[in-house]
Amino acid sequence: MTKILTSTILTSTRNPKIPKDSPCLTQSGIIPHPKKCHLYYNCSLSSESALWAYYEMFTVECNYPQLFDSEQLRCREFLNNNCNGRFEPVDPCEYRRNQCLRSHCQPCSLRFGSCRGRPDGIYPQHEFSWTPKYFTCYYERAIAHDLCEPPIPIFSPIENQCVSYDMVPKEHGGLRPDCKIRANGHYADEMGRCNFYFQCDNAKFQGFHKCNYGFTFNPILKICQSPDQVPPPCGSGSPPSCVKRPDGFYADLAGRCSYYFECKQSVFKGFHKCSRSHAFNPYKHSCVRGIGSQIKPCGIQDNPCQNRLTGFYHYNSSSSQYYECHEGLFIHFGTCPNGQIFNLSSKQCEIAEMKDYCANKADGRYKHPRAECIAFLECKQHTTFRVAQCSDKLNGTRFNSLTRSCDQPQNICPPCGYKWFDCPSYIESTTKLS
């Protein structure tokens, strides 16, 4: 009983009646489709085909990108084919055989590129994305879909060609240097290749260069030299100075992401190198994997030293946490032991001797007597509430002892600014330790 019922259901599904508007109801043979230029009717086909559950009965589709010639009654190349007002498809996804009929099917738009409205040429299969896939357009038809292969495995939507990983931006999984935070000039290769360097111009990466055989790039002089004249890690010249640098690890001063050096008791102890695909992270004092965990320009995390001058700074207005910048690179982060603050002048952690500074002072802000012009103390209820600093970025603000606020240097009297008029003599007294 069950078998008979199942058979009846299948028969009724696969043998629908011929529609009244079908030309095959009254005609036979091959008939052009009246509305679509890539379809035609083959009236000799069986009306019981399971395909008619998805498609118009008796219709056949030409292979992409062919069209049906209504005079020759056959599929042929799309060039010189007159559709006579019928819809003329140009994209692979306008052909029904490329559409999904079932679940778990990757959408057609992800499998094929679109050439509609595009001039002849090659394009990334997924616009604005960096993948190996690209396709070729010819008369608005995607005539070929291809893959980039090593050593140039990624198609660049910027260069419109296959490129190597060192030409792919870091935010897209590549290794291309980021020139947005660099001044014009030449820089050591971020990957640590000693005989390579790259060029930045107007915040744009201009390409890699290679030193002549036997020479390495000197990131200080910005020229290629023999290794004995180049500082480590690429040469045997003078190493970076550890004088007045707290003990710990420091990122390479030239921005080579995998290299870092160690200072101990003001003595340079040597360079270390991270393993492949890792970079040194000053926050963690260790090597980390993935650009999402790395600091710009090596990764995509914010760089606290961007646009800052070379030197030490308090971190987030904390007097006990500090970091060092070198030519816009974030190279070191440190925290003083409990009960100590970092002295920006001596560049060392020192015992906090400012606890009595606010004992006889009214609530408010006062210039830090032992630090540079950017730092100030805030008194509250006759105690030192906090030690903070103004913006110390390039052309940033300084502490104005007269207004007790952060201000531009041109509005501040010497020594912290260069205002030359209306500078009362008592300003100097407000900067002295009481």
TrEMBL record:
InterPro entries: Chitin-bd_dom, Chitin-bd_dom_sf, Chitin_bind-dev_reg. It comes from Octopus bimaculoides. Signal peptide: none annotated. GO terms for molecular function: chitin binding. It comes from the Eukaryota. This is Chitin-binding type-2 domain-containing protein. One of its GO terms (cellular component) is extracellular region. The lineage of its organism: Eukaryota, Metazoa, Spiralia, Lophotrochozoa, Mollusca. Keywords: Chitin-binding, Disulfide bond, Glycoprotein, Repeat, Signal. Residues 21-85, 176-236, 239-300, 302-360 form the Chitin-binding type-2 domain. Pfam families: CBM_14.
